[in-house]
Amino acid sequence: MSRSRVYQWCTWFGEGRTSLGDEPKSGRPKTSTNEENITSVDELIRCDRRMKIRDIALKLEIPKSTVHEIVHDTLGYQKVSVRWVPKMLTEDHKLQRVEISQRLLQRCSHCCVRFAE
């Protein structure tokens, strides 16, 4: 630890400070990431999965960085072939995949039987 930091702490504690934690800072509070904006972003993506982050930000009038955080971190979407898709599959999605795969296997087996004849 540097001497200047030790002197600074001595000064702070001499003035009555009792904690090493950061003091509350003034400035604009983080207000863009709220439930209303999260819901709005999710609705826009569900309506048009090809919508860009820039377009969502313009439509909702919130910063692109906030939209990016909501889409990727909060909602868990990622871009796949120009569309937003959830990163994690829900149980319904998993069941749909199994059902579709079974139907495709049935079609394939019918085609293979016809082809063999």
Automatic annotation (TrEMBL):
InterPro entries in alphabetical order: Transposase-MT_Hybrid, Tscrpt_reg_IclR_N
Region of interest: Disordered: 15-36
Pfam families: HTH_IclR
Superkingdom of the source species: Eukaryota
Biological process terms in GO annotation: regulation of DNA-templated transcription
Domain HTH iclR-type: 45-72
GO molecular function, one term: DNA binding
This protein's name: Histone-lysine N-methyltransferase SETMAR
Organism field: Plakobranchus ocellatus
Lineage: Eukaryota, Metazoa, Spiralia, Lophotrochozoa, Mollusca
